[in-house]
Design a protein that fits this description.
Length: 393
Protein backbone atom coordinates (compact mmCIF):
# COMPACT_ATOMS: atom_id res chain seq x y z
CA UNK A 1 0.00 0.00 0.00
CA UNK A 2 1.10 3.58 -0.68
CA UNK A 3 2.14 5.15 2.64
CA UNK A 4 1.56 8.75 1.52
CA UNK A 5 0.39 10.64 4.65
CA UNK A 6 -1.82 12.92 2.56
CA UNK A 7 -3.72 9.91 1.22
CA UNK A 8 -4.04 8.31 4.62
CA UNK A 9 -5.70 11.45 5.93
CA UNK A 10 -8.61 10.72 3.60
CA UNK A 11 -9.54 7.72 5.73
CA UNK A 12 -12.94 8.30 7.37
CA UNK A 13 -12.90 9.05 11.05
CA UNK A 14 -13.76 6.26 13.43
CA UNK A 15 -17.23 5.92 14.91
CA UNK A 16 -17.74 8.50 17.62
CA UNK A 17 -15.05 10.85 16.34
CA UNK A 18 -15.95 14.36 15.32
CA UNK A 19 -14.01 17.01 13.48
CA UNK A 20 -13.23 18.62 16.84
CA UNK A 21 -12.04 15.46 18.61
CA UNK A 22 -8.57 14.38 17.51
CA UNK A 23 -7.30 10.96 18.43
CA UNK A 24 -5.25 10.97 21.66
CA UNK A 25 -2.06 8.91 21.62
CA UNK A 26 -0.22 8.23 24.88
CA UNK A 27 3.50 7.59 24.27
CA UNK A 28 4.99 5.58 27.14
CA UNK A 29 8.77 5.54 27.62
CA UNK A 30 11.18 4.90 30.47
CA UNK A 31 12.68 8.42 30.55
CA UNK A 32 12.22 11.44 28.30
CA UNK A 33 15.79 12.43 27.52
CA UNK A 34 18.17 12.64 24.57
CA UNK A 35 18.21 9.34 22.68
CA UNK A 36 17.18 7.57 19.50
CA UNK A 37 13.75 6.30 20.49
CA UNK A 38 12.99 9.62 22.20
CA UNK A 39 13.78 11.39 18.92
CA UNK A 40 11.34 9.08 17.15
CA UNK A 41 8.65 9.97 19.68
CA UNK A 42 9.43 13.66 19.18
CA UNK A 43 9.15 13.25 15.40
CA UNK A 44 5.77 11.55 15.78
CA UNK A 45 4.46 14.26 18.07
CA UNK A 46 5.77 17.03 15.84
CA UNK A 47 4.91 15.63 12.42
CA UNK A 48 1.80 13.48 12.67
CA UNK A 49 -1.12 15.63 11.42
CA UNK A 50 -2.00 18.03 14.21
CA UNK A 51 -5.67 18.11 13.27
CA UNK A 52 -5.95 14.34 13.70
CA UNK A 53 -3.83 13.66 16.78
CA UNK A 54 -3.24 14.94 20.29
CA UNK A 55 -0.44 13.50 22.38
CA UNK A 56 0.43 12.68 25.97
CA UNK A 57 4.03 11.71 26.74
CA UNK A 58 4.27 9.51 29.82
CA UNK A 59 7.66 8.82 31.38
CA UNK A 60 7.96 6.06 33.94
CA UNK A 61 10.75 8.03 35.62
CA UNK A 62 11.24 11.69 34.71
CA UNK A 63 10.84 14.38 32.07
CA UNK A 64 13.94 16.37 31.14
CA UNK A 65 14.50 19.50 29.09
CA UNK A 66 14.26 17.32 26.00
CA UNK A 67 10.52 18.06 26.10
CA UNK A 68 11.30 21.46 24.56
CA UNK A 69 11.89 19.63 21.28
CA UNK A 70 8.24 18.56 21.12
CA UNK A 71 6.28 21.33 19.44
CA UNK A 72 2.71 20.07 19.15
CA UNK A 73 0.27 22.70 20.51
CA UNK A 74 -1.63 20.07 22.50
CA UNK A 75 0.99 17.75 23.96
CA UNK A 76 1.05 17.06 27.71
CA UNK A 77 3.85 15.54 29.79
CA UNK A 78 3.52 13.21 32.76
CA UNK A 79 6.33 11.82 34.95
CA UNK A 80 5.42 8.85 37.16
CA UNK A 81 8.53 8.92 39.36
CA UNK A 82 9.37 5.24 39.15
CA UNK A 83 11.99 4.14 41.70
CA UNK A 84 15.06 2.13 40.69
CA UNK A 85 14.48 -1.60 40.44
CA UNK A 86 11.01 -3.04 41.00
CA UNK A 87 8.35 -0.44 41.79
CA UNK A 88 4.90 -2.05 41.44
CA UNK A 89 3.21 1.15 42.62
CA UNK A 90 4.17 2.86 39.37
CA UNK A 91 1.59 0.78 37.52
CA UNK A 92 -1.12 1.93 39.92
CA UNK A 93 -0.14 5.55 39.17
CA UNK A 94 -0.06 4.74 35.47
CA UNK A 95 -3.53 3.17 35.59
CA UNK A 96 -4.98 6.21 37.38
CA UNK A 97 -3.39 8.55 34.82
CA UNK A 98 -4.88 6.61 31.91
CA UNK A 99 -8.31 6.76 33.56
CA UNK A 100 -7.95 10.54 33.53
CA UNK A 101 -6.47 10.92 30.05
CA UNK A 102 -8.65 8.32 28.28
CA UNK A 103 -6.29 7.88 25.31
CA UNK A 104 -7.39 6.08 22.16
CA UNK A 105 -4.18 4.04 22.13
CA UNK A 106 -0.90 3.64 23.98
CA UNK A 107 2.36 3.55 22.04
CA UNK A 108 4.99 2.07 24.38
CA UNK A 109 8.70 1.70 23.71
CA UNK A 110 11.18 -0.98 24.77
CA UNK A 111 11.19 -3.61 27.48
CA UNK A 112 10.76 -1.29 30.47
CA UNK A 113 7.24 -0.40 29.31
CA UNK A 114 6.00 -3.82 28.22
CA UNK A 115 4.39 -4.59 31.57
CA UNK A 116 2.10 -1.62 30.97
CA UNK A 117 0.04 -3.74 28.60
CA UNK A 118 -2.12 -5.16 31.42
CA UNK A 119 -2.90 -1.92 33.31
CA UNK A 120 -3.54 -0.29 29.94
CA UNK A 121 -6.28 -2.80 29.22
CA UNK A 122 -7.64 -2.56 32.77
CA UNK A 123 -7.90 1.22 32.33
CA UNK A 124 -10.18 0.69 29.34
CA UNK A 125 -7.75 1.67 26.56
CA UNK A 126 -8.62 -0.35 23.48
CA UNK A 127 -5.24 -0.52 21.72
CA UNK A 128 -1.69 -1.10 22.97
CA UNK A 129 1.21 -0.90 20.49
CA UNK A 130 4.70 -1.90 21.64
CA UNK A 131 7.80 -0.80 19.71
CA UNK A 132 11.22 -2.39 20.11
CA UNK A 133 14.05 0.05 19.33
CA UNK A 134 16.72 -2.25 20.77
CA UNK A 135 16.94 -4.97 23.36
CA UNK A 136 17.56 -4.31 27.02
CA UNK A 137 21.18 -3.55 27.95
CA UNK A 138 21.08 -6.51 30.38
CA UNK A 139 19.96 -8.80 27.56
CA UNK A 140 21.62 -7.59 24.33
CA UNK A 141 21.08 -10.88 22.49
CA UNK A 142 17.46 -11.26 23.58
CA UNK A 143 17.93 -14.72 25.07
CA UNK A 144 17.46 -14.10 28.80
CA UNK A 145 14.81 -16.55 29.93
CA UNK A 146 12.81 -14.32 32.29
CA UNK A 147 12.46 -11.60 29.65
CA UNK A 148 11.41 -14.12 27.00
CA UNK A 149 8.77 -15.56 29.32
CA UNK A 150 7.50 -12.07 30.12
CA UNK A 151 7.23 -11.16 26.43
CA UNK A 152 5.43 -14.41 25.57
CA UNK A 153 3.01 -14.04 28.48
CA UNK A 154 2.04 -10.53 27.38
CA UNK A 155 1.53 -11.30 23.67
CA UNK A 156 -2.28 -11.58 24.03
CA UNK A 157 -2.39 -8.16 25.71
CA UNK A 158 -0.55 -6.37 22.90
CA UNK A 159 -2.26 -5.43 19.64
CA UNK A 160 0.88 -4.86 17.61
CA UNK A 161 4.64 -5.14 17.93
CA UNK A 162 6.90 -2.75 16.00
CA UNK A 163 10.46 -3.91 15.26
CA UNK A 164 12.71 -1.19 13.84
CA UNK A 165 15.20 -3.59 12.24
CA UNK A 166 15.33 -6.91 10.42
CA UNK A 167 17.25 -8.37 13.37
CA UNK A 168 14.49 -7.42 15.81
CA UNK A 169 11.80 -8.62 13.41
CA UNK A 170 13.38 -12.06 13.03
CA UNK A 171 13.98 -12.30 16.78
CA UNK A 172 10.32 -11.45 17.51
CA UNK A 173 9.15 -14.04 15.03
CA UNK A 174 11.51 -16.95 15.69
CA UNK A 175 12.70 -16.49 19.28
CA UNK A 176 9.85 -14.73 21.08
CA UNK A 177 7.29 -16.50 18.86
CA UNK A 178 5.05 -13.51 18.28
CA UNK A 179 2.39 -14.30 15.65
CA UNK A 180 3.39 -12.73 12.32
CA UNK A 181 0.08 -10.90 11.97
CA UNK A 182 0.95 -8.91 15.11
CA UNK A 183 4.36 -7.75 13.82
CA UNK A 184 4.48 -4.41 11.99
CA UNK A 185 8.04 -3.50 10.85
CA UNK A 186 8.76 0.24 10.75
CA UNK A 187 12.32 1.38 10.18
CA UNK A 188 13.53 4.63 11.68
CA UNK A 189 13.93 7.63 9.43
CA UNK A 190 15.53 11.06 9.50
CA UNK A 191 15.09 14.41 7.82
CA UNK A 192 17.39 14.98 4.85
CA UNK A 193 19.39 18.18 5.54
CA UNK A 194 20.89 20.48 2.92
CA UNK A 195 24.05 19.19 1.30
CA UNK A 196 26.80 19.97 3.82
CA UNK A 197 29.60 22.42 3.06
CA UNK A 198 32.49 20.42 4.46
CA UNK A 199 36.12 21.39 3.92
CA UNK A 200 38.19 18.27 3.40
CA UNK A 201 41.55 17.43 4.97
CA UNK A 202 44.36 18.67 2.76
CA UNK A 203 42.70 21.95 1.84
CA UNK A 204 43.84 23.40 5.16
CA UNK A 205 47.27 22.22 6.37
CA UNK A 206 46.24 22.86 9.99
CA UNK A 207 43.04 20.84 9.80
CA UNK A 208 43.32 17.25 11.12
CA UNK A 209 41.34 14.31 9.80
CA UNK A 210 38.36 14.32 12.18
CA UNK A 211 36.64 11.14 13.32
CA UNK A 212 33.25 11.74 14.90
CA UNK A 213 30.92 9.85 17.19
CA UNK A 214 27.53 10.88 18.59
CA UNK A 215 25.81 8.80 21.24
CA UNK A 216 25.24 7.91 24.84
CA UNK A 217 28.35 6.87 26.71
CA UNK A 218 26.99 3.61 28.06
CA UNK A 219 28.78 0.24 28.24
CA UNK A 220 26.50 -1.21 25.54
CA UNK A 221 27.63 1.58 23.19
CA UNK A 222 31.27 0.59 23.86
CA UNK A 223 32.96 4.00 23.51
CA UNK A 224 36.19 2.52 24.90
CA UNK A 225 36.36 0.37 21.77
CA UNK A 226 36.65 3.59 19.77
CA UNK A 227 39.27 5.05 22.12
CA UNK A 228 41.35 1.89 21.71
CA UNK A 229 41.02 2.02 17.93
CA UNK A 230 41.99 5.69 17.85
CA UNK A 231 45.07 4.97 19.98
CA UNK A 232 46.12 2.31 17.50
CA UNK A 233 45.64 4.76 14.62
CA UNK A 234 47.84 7.31 16.36
CA UNK A 235 50.57 4.69 16.71
CA UNK A 236 50.22 3.51 13.11
CA UNK A 237 50.18 7.01 11.59
CA UNK A 238 52.23 9.19 13.96
CA UNK A 239 52.81 11.89 11.33
CA UNK A 240 49.16 12.17 10.30
CA UNK A 241 47.11 14.87 12.09
CA UNK A 242 44.12 13.07 13.60
CA UNK A 243 41.30 14.21 15.86
CA UNK A 244 38.47 12.36 17.58
CA UNK A 245 35.31 14.13 18.75
CA UNK A 246 32.79 12.33 20.98
CA UNK A 247 29.43 14.06 21.37
CA UNK A 248 27.39 12.73 24.27
CA UNK A 249 27.67 11.79 27.91
CA UNK A 250 26.88 8.97 30.28
CA UNK A 251 28.20 6.64 32.97
CA UNK A 252 31.21 5.56 30.85
CA UNK A 253 32.66 9.08 30.75
CA UNK A 254 35.01 8.62 33.76
CA UNK A 255 36.44 5.45 32.17
CA UNK A 256 36.85 7.29 28.86
CA UNK A 257 38.67 10.17 30.57
CA UNK A 258 40.94 7.72 32.39
CA UNK A 259 41.83 5.92 29.16
CA UNK A 260 42.50 9.23 27.39
CA UNK A 261 44.88 10.20 30.19
CA UNK A 262 46.56 6.78 30.17
CA UNK A 263 47.19 6.96 26.42
CA UNK A 264 48.09 10.67 26.49
CA UNK A 265 45.40 11.56 23.97
CA UNK A 266 44.11 14.75 25.61
CA UNK A 267 45.45 16.91 22.80
CA UNK A 268 43.63 14.93 20.09
CA UNK A 269 40.41 13.65 21.72
CA UNK A 270 37.63 16.13 22.47
CA UNK A 271 34.72 15.17 24.73
CA UNK A 272 31.98 17.58 23.66
CA UNK A 273 29.34 16.38 26.16
CA UNK A 274 25.62 16.65 25.49
CA UNK A 275 24.68 19.08 22.75
CA UNK A 276 21.21 20.48 22.12
CA UNK A 277 22.14 20.94 18.47
CA UNK A 278 24.56 18.48 16.86
CA UNK A 279 24.33 20.12 13.43
CA UNK A 280 27.64 22.03 13.60
CA UNK A 281 29.51 18.81 14.39
CA UNK A 282 28.34 16.97 11.29
CA UNK A 283 30.21 19.48 9.15
CA UNK A 284 33.36 19.09 11.25
CA UNK A 285 33.46 15.31 10.87
CA UNK A 286 35.19 13.55 7.98
CA UNK A 287 34.06 10.10 9.08
CA UNK A 288 31.45 8.80 11.51
CA UNK A 289 32.10 5.78 13.74
CA UNK A 290 29.65 3.71 15.79
CA UNK A 291 31.47 1.13 17.99
CA UNK A 292 28.44 -0.45 19.76
CA UNK A 293 28.05 -3.96 21.12
CA UNK A 294 24.31 -3.95 20.32
CA UNK A 295 21.91 -1.66 18.44
CA UNK A 296 18.43 -1.41 17.00
CA UNK A 297 18.31 0.97 14.03
CA UNK A 298 20.56 3.81 15.22
CA UNK A 299 19.41 7.26 14.17
CA UNK A 300 22.93 8.60 14.51
CA UNK A 301 24.07 6.44 11.60
CA UNK A 302 21.17 7.66 9.48
CA UNK A 303 21.94 11.26 10.41
CA UNK A 304 25.59 10.79 9.52
CA UNK A 305 24.65 9.26 6.16
CA UNK A 306 22.16 12.06 5.54
CA UNK A 307 25.05 14.50 6.04
CA UNK A 308 27.04 12.62 3.37
CA UNK A 309 29.50 11.03 5.79
CA UNK A 310 30.97 7.56 5.28
CA UNK A 311 30.26 5.33 8.27
CA UNK A 312 32.43 2.75 10.01
CA UNK A 313 30.35 0.68 12.44
CA UNK A 314 30.13 -2.65 14.19
CA UNK A 315 27.94 -5.24 12.50
CA UNK A 316 25.32 -5.51 15.24
CA UNK A 317 21.52 -5.38 15.35
CA UNK A 318 20.06 -3.36 12.50
CA UNK A 319 23.31 -1.60 11.56
CA UNK A 320 23.78 -3.91 8.57
CA UNK A 321 20.38 -2.80 7.25
CA UNK A 322 21.67 0.76 7.05
CA UNK A 323 25.36 0.61 6.12
CA UNK A 324 26.23 -1.24 2.91
CA UNK A 325 29.72 -2.58 3.48
CA UNK A 326 32.07 -1.25 0.79
CA UNK A 327 29.46 1.14 -0.63
CA UNK A 328 28.41 3.56 2.11
CA UNK A 329 30.99 2.60 4.74
CA UNK A 330 32.60 -0.36 6.46
CA UNK A 331 31.24 -2.94 8.88
CA UNK A 332 33.46 -4.68 11.43
CA UNK A 333 32.98 -7.20 14.27
CA UNK A 334 31.99 -5.81 17.64
CA UNK A 335 34.56 -5.44 20.43
CA UNK A 336 37.45 -5.59 17.96
CA UNK A 337 39.44 -2.32 18.10
CA UNK A 338 42.05 -3.64 15.63
CA UNK A 339 39.40 -4.23 12.98
CA UNK A 340 37.82 -0.87 13.78
CA UNK A 341 41.16 0.93 13.42
CA UNK A 342 41.91 -0.83 10.12
CA UNK A 343 38.53 0.15 8.67
CA UNK A 344 38.97 3.78 9.69
CA UNK A 345 42.47 3.73 8.22
CA UNK A 346 41.05 2.86 4.79
CA UNK A 347 39.61 6.38 4.58
CA UNK A 348 42.51 8.46 5.88
CA UNK A 349 44.31 8.95 2.57
CA UNK A 350 41.46 8.29 0.12
CA UNK A 351 39.29 11.41 -0.33
CA UNK A 352 37.64 9.91 -3.41
CA UNK A 353 36.40 6.93 -1.36
CA UNK A 354 35.13 9.24 1.37
CA UNK A 355 33.21 11.37 -1.11
CA UNK A 356 31.78 8.38 -3.00
CA UNK A 357 30.65 6.49 0.12
CA UNK A 358 29.27 9.67 1.70
CA UNK A 359 27.20 10.49 -1.38
CA UNK A 360 25.94 6.91 -1.65
CA UNK A 361 24.87 6.97 2.00
CA UNK A 362 22.93 10.19 1.53
CA UNK A 363 21.16 8.74 -1.50
CA UNK A 364 20.30 5.61 0.49
CA UNK A 365 18.71 7.65 3.29
CA UNK A 366 16.67 9.66 0.78
CA UNK A 367 15.40 6.50 -0.90
CA UNK A 368 14.72 4.21 2.04
CA UNK A 369 15.11 5.89 5.44
CA UNK A 370 13.37 9.24 5.18
CA UNK A 371 11.49 10.78 8.06
CA UNK A 372 8.42 11.09 5.83
CA UNK A 373 8.33 7.37 5.16
CA UNK A 374 8.61 6.56 8.87
CA UNK A 375 5.85 9.01 9.81
CA UNK A 376 3.56 7.60 7.13
CA UNK A 377 4.06 4.05 8.42
CA UNK A 378 3.20 5.03 12.01
CA UNK A 379 0.25 7.03 10.75
CA UNK A 380 -1.12 3.95 9.01
CA UNK A 381 -0.57 1.81 12.10
CA UNK A 382 -2.20 4.28 14.48
CA UNK A 383 -5.20 4.75 12.17
CA UNK A 384 -5.59 0.99 11.81
CA UNK A 385 -5.00 1.07 8.06
CA UNK A 386 -3.99 -2.29 6.62
CA UNK A 387 -0.50 -2.05 5.12
CA UNK A 388 1.94 -4.53 3.66
CA UNK A 389 4.10 -6.35 6.22
CA UNK A 390 7.17 -6.70 3.97
CA UNK A 391 8.63 -3.25 4.47
CA UNK A 392 12.23 -3.25 3.33
CA UNK A 393 14.94 -2.88 5.94
Amino acid sequence: MDLDPARLLLKPRQTGESESSPMLIAHLIHRLDIGGLEKVVADLVNHLPHDRFDHAVISLTEITAFKERLHHPRVTFHALGKQRGQDPAVWWRYWKLLRQLKPDLVHACNLATLEAAIPTRLAGVKRFIHAEHGRDSHDPDGTRRKYLLLRRFLIPWVDGFVPVSRDLHDWMLHTVHIPPEKIHPIVNGVRLPPVPNRSRPGTDPNRPFTIGHVGRQWPIKDPLNLIEAFFQLRRSYPETPLRLILVGDGPERPAIEARIAEYRLADTVHLAGWQNDVTPFWERFDLFVLPSRAEGTPLTILEAMAHALPVVATRVGGVGDLVVDGQTGRLVPRSDPCALADAIGEYLFDPARRAMHGAAGRERVAARFSQERMIAAYLALFLGVSVTKDQEF
